[in-house]
Amino acid sequence: xxxxxxxxxxxxxxxxxxxxxxxxxxxxxxxxxxxxxxxxxxxxxxxxxxxxxxxxxxxxxxxxxxxxxxxxxxxxxxxxxxxxxxxxxxxxxxxxxxxxxxxxxxxxxxxxxxxxxxxxxxxxxxxxxxxxxxxxxxxxxxxxxxxxxxxxxxxxxxxxxxxxxxxxxxxxxxxxxxxxxxxxxxxxxxxxxxxxxxxxxxxxxxxxxxxxxxxxxxxxxxxxxxxxxxxxxxxxxxxxxxxxxxxxxxxxxxxxxxxxxxxxxxxxxxxxxxx
Length: 275
Fold this sequence. Notes:
This protein has about 280 residues and is of the alpha+beta class.
């Protein structure tokens, strides 16, 4: 796993250093303007982890700010700000375009961790602390509608988050001048530390809960699919929604922490952007 991710990072870095890459990145910076987006969404979904049955419904704020070459965004706001524009990364990010068809993004993201305090069967397992993850993403256009992406992120604070790798394809269908549908299919992998922290049970955790230990190595985590839409309601307002589904795979699927193999998330919302 680390070798794959190190190769990806090296390849992405090399792309920035290709002849003309620096000039392309500088040009993309110069084209950026200050911008913002604020909105809210209603999300109904469930989680792989835990024993609670059924799904929950939450109201979630979302926002994004563009300050020159830097972008700060939460949740899906990054994509909504880019309806009809370049795609943005979630978190604190900036983007480089070494070629017309390839874009590279570097970002910092807050990972809120996890607690078992509200789960009576898993209470006593160690919490996963909040941390900051550094993320490097690459996207390549495969035509007017298809694109391929790859990303890797790592726990910067050493709180058990480990390293993850994701890859997938996306199909963008312009339903009308103002409305776009997006279909995505992807998979995620994690190194041994990430998988053990999120799906394993250590000796200390087993003693605290009376469960058996469960050890994992690096490997596949899940397969994900999504169908999303966004539509402009005018110059500033954007409506959006979609369905996301995930199926956990491999040894992660056999973890005692996993309460359900397949999950869903249904979202609908509205947002306002400044330009």
